[in-house]
């Protein structure tokens, strides 16, 4: 039997009436399943993607990452980068502009999103897929 090559987990974002999907896939078949589930268009496997999607009649922010790509490995920095994009998408969705003089709403949200990503990585036993890259 072929091993499942994708996963998705859906969450309600606290304080904001928004849903978040955290998705991982290793090949085109897995990406297609994610595209179909959330009505998004992840067109290629690369570090990650953040898109607006749908889950039934509800809108959802979709975070996708490929943990199996050795050419563009998932690193702690890549995860932080994609989570930052998620915060912008959620704040945009609720009509809140990021404010440099009061960054607390975005900082709170970023911490929550990062914690959820690592919660999913641990639950799915994917933590060993994260690469540590030493800067040159």
Describe the structure.
- There is one protein chain.
- The protein is α+β, with helices and mostly antiparallel strands and 136 residues long.
- 36% of the residues lie in helices and 24% in strands.
- It has 3 helices and 4 strands.
- It has helices spanning 28-38, 76-93, 104-123, and strands at residues 6-13, 18-25, 48-55, 58-65.
- It has a 4-stranded mixed beta sheet with strand order 1-2-4-3, sandwiched between helices.
- A hairpin with a 4-residue loop joins β1 (6-13) and β2 (18-25).
C-alpha-based Rg, rounded: 15 Å
Mean pLDDT score: 88
Number of domains: 1
Structural class label: alpha+beta
Q: What is the count of β-strands?
A: 4
**Which spans of ≥5 residues are poorly predicted at pLDDT below 50?**
none
Q: How far is the N terminus from the C terminus?
A: 42 Å
Order of helices and strands: EEHEEHH
Helix tally equals 3
For the biggest sheet, the summary is: 4 strands, mixed
Helix content: 25-40%
Principal-axes geometry comes out as globular
Strand content: 15-25%
Widest sheet, order of strands = 1-2-4-3
Helices and strands in order:
Layout (H helix, E strand, L loop, with lengths): L5 E8 L4 E8 L2 H11 L9 E8 L2 E8 L10 H18 L10 H20 L13
Parallel strand pairs: 2-4
Antiparallel strand pairs: 1-2, 3-4
Helix pairs in contact: 2-3
Keywords:
single chain; 136 residues; alpha+beta; 4 strands; four-stranded mixed beta sheet; 3 helices; 36% helix
């Amino acid at each position: 039997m072929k091993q499942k090559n994708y996963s998705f987990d859906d969450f309600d974002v606290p304080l904001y009436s928004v849903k978040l999907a955290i998705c991982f896939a290793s090949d085109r078949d897995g990406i297609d399943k994610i595209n179909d589930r959330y009505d998004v268009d992840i067109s290629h496997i690369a570090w990650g993607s953040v898109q607006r999607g749908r889950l039934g009649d509800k809108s959802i922010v979709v975070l996708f990452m490929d943990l199996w790509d050795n050419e563009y490995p998932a690193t702690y920095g890549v995860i932080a980068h994609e989570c930052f994009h998620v915060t912008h998408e959620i704040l945009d969705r609720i009509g809140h502009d990021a404010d440099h003089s009061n960054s607390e709403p975005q900082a709170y949200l970023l911490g929550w999103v990062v914690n959820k990503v690592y919660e999913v990585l641990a639950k799915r036993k994917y933590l060993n897929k994260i690469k540590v890259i030493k800067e040159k």
